[in-house]
Target: Dihydrofolate reductase family protein
Amino acid sequence: MRKITLSLSVSLDGYFAGPNGELDWHLVDDEVHRHFNERIKPMGGFLHGRVMHELMVGYWPTADEDPSAPEPVREFAAIYRDMPKIVYSRTLEPGPADWNTTVVREVVPEEVRALKEQPGGDLGIGGAELAAEFRRHDLIDEYLLYVVPVILGRGRPLFAESDATTRLRLAATHTFGNGLVLLRYERAGA
Model:
């Protein structure tokens, strides 16, 4: 069965974005980008919320057309463009160039579980609000947190307050040359 994986950068104090949505503190150099590319190549698709989708579509579908873009960026652009995407949004309408995207109006746990049972690679979830909804329904199998060596002091917390406790077990760690640390957790008992 396919897994649903959450993969996000987070500050040491637990924020995925600054107070005004800033992401300029993320550390993505060529080494990290190559890691991302290798990790997502075999995936079966992306599950995004509207905000993440609009952020990604604003740059990635044509990023490989920029001759000055580093090779890992051009490679990611091709992977992103070709990967099937499901966008959860009540307001987004598919555009004329929808970049291999299906719009779904709400998270229905039974539909997500059925999607996990389909053949293909794992599914990557993107966006903290969508991740909170998936977590509320206990649909996330793996958490990949890229801890950036920065303390923001305030911002948008990665995990919203919840009454649910999710037990995890550490599956792997990796330290990158720029100081970024990957913590990969799986649901306990999975």
Remarks:
- The helical segments are 30-40, 50-57, 71-82, 109-116, 128-136.
- The mean pLDDT is 92.
- The two ends are 12 Å apart (CA to CA).
